Backbone:
């Protein structure tokens, strides 16, 4: 049987893993771009539909992680720190990490729309 402390630890470990993986993949993309000589730069502006999906996913994830921390009896005295870390990590992942958006979130959005 899983306790609330186990679920909280698992959620935080998964978030850390996704955060480090996304940062690593972003670094790999950056290194590949630096190795290319010349080339042009492209700026992509997201449409309203995809940005709304991103905001909904971000809101849902932040609520899930915040409630997970608040409901758990574990880490008393560190709950504010965990919530702040979660918000910062999720904000980076959803709005500043192009790898997660382009390789994970938007394919999920397209799959949801397809079904």
Residues:
């Amino acid at each position: 049987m899983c306790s609330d402390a186990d679920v909280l630890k698992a959620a935080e470990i998964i978030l850390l893993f996704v955060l480090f993986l996304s940062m690593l993949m972003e670094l790999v993309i950056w290194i590949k771009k630096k190795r290319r000589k010349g080339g042009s730069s492209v700026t992509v502006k997201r449409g309203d539909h995809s940005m709304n999906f991103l905001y909904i996913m971000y809101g849902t994830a932040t609520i899930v992680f915040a409630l997970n921390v608040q409901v758990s009896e574990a880490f008393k005295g560190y709950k504010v720190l965990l919530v702040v870390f979660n918000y910062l990590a999720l904000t980076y992942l959803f709005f500043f990490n192009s790898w997660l958006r382009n390789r994970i979130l938007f394919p999920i959005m397209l799959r949801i729309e397809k079904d």
The chain has one domain: 4-114. The longest helix spans residues 4-35. Residues 92 and 101 are 11 Å apart (CA to CA). Residues 4-114 form one domain.
